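Marked as duplicate of an earlier ticket. Keeping the data here for the record.
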Amino acid sequence: METKNPGDFVAISVSETEEKSPARCCAVLASVIRRTIAGEICADDSRKLFHAAKVGLALVLVSLLYMLEVVHDRLGDNAMWAVMTVVVIFESTAGATISKGINRVLGTMLGGGLGFSVAFLAQGISGAGKAVVIGISVFVFCSTATYIRMIPSIKKKHDYGAMIFILTYSLVAVSGVRSNQIIKIASDRLSSIFIGFAVCIFISLFIFPIWCGDELHNSLASKFDNLACSIEGLSQKYSHF
């Protein structure tokens, strides 16, 4: 058996190290990362990249609106509600975005209107009676809305709207007692939510729209292709018998 000198291995490793310079290693690593991102992820599901880009674009637009002096002078810090609206309602498909946006608008309007009514009535009560009225109303309405959320038909379609109703009602009813400008605060927040909702709908519908029907079609087509391959493989396997 031929034996090799240990020095040969050292020479080989040194020569390989010299060939693989740091610049070449970085170039190879960058090429692998680029092929992974542009090839595998895009081929697997390019819609995820489109959705991520659309969310970023929506946030940029509402942030720019917040920075405009005209909008900030009109809405003040309540313009940040447009940013929060984009974050919470923008879904991967257009239909889901519309459904969640409608739930948010309806929940905000119902909760804000009812909370404003209770706060307005409580302002006419002096002393500890004001806190008692607010506490009882929050308990009754929020408990009722929470119970309604657990109904299967409501939970399936309007769970998010019921949650927004609870949140909005609690905020408006409690903060309205200490504020003398509750009408302006409620209108400004509602306007900001409408701005965020409008931006989400526009981008979701007119910039690379993604529909649930397309996902269902692709999923069914993929499953039928796999089924056809399985049947073809079985037929070839048992065709000799």
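See parent ticket for discussion. The two ends are 52 Å apart (CA to CA).
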